[in-house]
Amino acid sequence: MLTKSEKTTKYIIKKVAPIFNKKGYEGTSMKDITSVTSLTKGAIYGNFKNKEAIAIAAFKENVNVLLKKIAKHQNQSKSPLEKLYLITDFYTNYYDYSKKLGGCPILNIGVDAKHQETSLLEHVRSVINKTQYNISKLIDWGKETSEIKQEVNSQLFAKRLYSHIQGAIFMTYTMDDEQYLKQAMIEMNSIIKNEIEK
User: Across-strand partners of 197?
Assistant: First the structure.
């Protein structure tokens, strides 16, 4: 059972996560935080060391929601190759889904954190590295099950897939046109089919 303090911390994170995702670290003020939570600065800082700690917790919350959604989508198949296709399938409709989060947390906070003197960027990089690692392990698994060609460089392909996804997300949001993302995922499916599928 959660303590009162733990409940308050969870409440704050849930309320401020969309704000930080939309406005970024610099753009989110303490007034925004107190307004959305209906708590005083004292109550906020009673649960968090500083604004950076709140931003990191908010980023982790947004990313965890996203990663759980992707994992659930991938659970539709036990085949490593099919799980790879399910990644592109998930991102085909990512624009509508991510708008509810205030945009893509990895892209939004990654770009924003790059220009700030905070450790937030290291958390974004960690998520990217972990995601690419998981994709590469999926490819390695596909090699073991003879669904994916042995000569495929798992790490390089994982980086290629993920950078393709993030680039398409950037274009989709910048141009407010989901066709960038949909077309990019069609292209990645073709690449998977023709270059790595056995």
Answer: 148
